[in-house]
Design a protein that fits this description.
Type II secretion is composed of four main components: the outer membrane complex, the inner membrane complex, the cytoplasmic secretion ATPase and the periplasm-spanning pseudopilus. With about 120 residues, the chain is α+β, with helices and mostly antiparallel strands. The chain has a single domain, classed as GSPII I/J protein-like (Pantoate--beta-alanine Ligase, Chain: A,domain 2, 2-Layer Sandwich). The chain is built from 1 helix and 4 strands.
Length: about 120
């Protein structure tokens, strides 16, 4: 009787298919993770910008108008679109301040929306 040494061609092909499928799954997962990290970085930068804008308006003691004001800024080497407005709260001495950050003025949805409150002194 003859003993078998090694693998048959069919076994080698099956092993190659299994490793190829595992490699494709790993590649797809890595690509999804990289895209998620980029999106997370964008949202963090946008939240910093919104927070900075609110702090600046508070430091300037600006009473927020009830219409949108806007500006474009360069931050982290990229252009960002910010807009803000005051919102009535029902109290004469208190007004909400909404700040939104978008990548472009034409974007329909804001990356970040942030609300704080301003007291008239």
């Amino acid at each position: 009787m003859k003993t078998q040494r090694g693998m048959t061609l069919l076994e080698v092909l099956v092993a190659l298919v299994v490793f190829a499928l595992a490699g494709l799954a790993l590649l797809q997962t890595t690509a999804q993770q990289a895209g998620g990290i980029g999106r997370m970085e964008e949202k963090v930068l946008a939240s910093w910008l919104a927070d900075n804008q609110q702090v600046q308006l508070h430091l300037d003691k600006t009473w927020p108008e009830k219409r949108w004001s806007d500006k474009t800024v360069t931050f982290a080497g990229e252009e960002w679109y910010l807009r803000w407005q005051g919102v009535d709260t029902g109290l004469d001495q208190l007004r909400a301040l909404d700040v939104e950050v978008r990548r472009k003025k034409e974007d329909t949805a804001a990356l970040v929306s942030l609300r704080s409150y301003v007291v008239r002194e």
